[in-house]
């Protein structure tokens, strides 16, 4: 193996580690947030500081929770098992959409303090989409 090949392999390994860290952080965050929405009623969510849940339909809250849990699982399971690993990119893209919509709701409600969190989570999810597409794609199981 030449020096160039060794450096390329190390660079690829670094991207892979960084992407796994991002995927793990996102998965933990969205699993926690989604499970909370699935397990709690709107009054409990409002008491936790999620004011938007006060006027949101019950089924919308549950749908958002389910989408977040599915996204969290999609970030990890396809990539870890190498069974249809392209689903990891789709899960990350779906979480990007959720964060754009969440930021829009918070802006409309005047909850500007929450928007930076949405932007950071969006950026991490977009990083996963980009990284798993360009820098460290995961090959499907042979």
TrEMBL record:
Keyword annotations from UniProtKB, A to Z: Membrane, Transmembrane, Transmembrane helix
InterPro entries: DoxX
Signal peptide residues on this chain, from the entry's feature table: none
Name this protein carries in UniProt: DoxX-like protein
One GO term describing the cellular component: membrane
Bilayer disposition of the protein: Multi-pass membrane protein
UniProt lineage: Bacteria, Pseudomonadati, Pseudomonadota, Alphaproteobacteria, Rhodobacterales
Location of the protein in the cell: Membrane
Keyword Amino-acid biosynthesis carried by entry: no
Domain of life: Bacteria
Pfam families: DoxX_2
Annotated transmembrane regions: 17-36, 56-78, 90-108, 114-131
């Amino acid at each position: 193996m030449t020096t160039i090949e060794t450096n390329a392999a190390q660079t690829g390994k670094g991207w892979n580690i960084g992407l796994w860290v991002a995927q793990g952080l996102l998965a933990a965050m969205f699993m926690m947030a989604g499970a909370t929405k699935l397990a709690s009623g709107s009054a409990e969510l409002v008491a936790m500081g999620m004011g938007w849940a006060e006027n949101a339909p019950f089924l919308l809250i549950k749908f958002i929770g389910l989408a977040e849990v599915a996204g969290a699982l999609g970030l990890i399971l396809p990539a870890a098992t190498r069974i249809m690993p392209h689903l990891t990119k789709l899960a990350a893209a779906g979480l990007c959409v959720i964060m754009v919509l969440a930021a829009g709701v918070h802006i409309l409600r005047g909850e500007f303090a929450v928007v930076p969190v949405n932007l950071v989570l969006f950026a991490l999810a977009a990083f996963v989409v980009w990284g798993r597409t360009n820098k460290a794609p995961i090959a499907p199981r042979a």
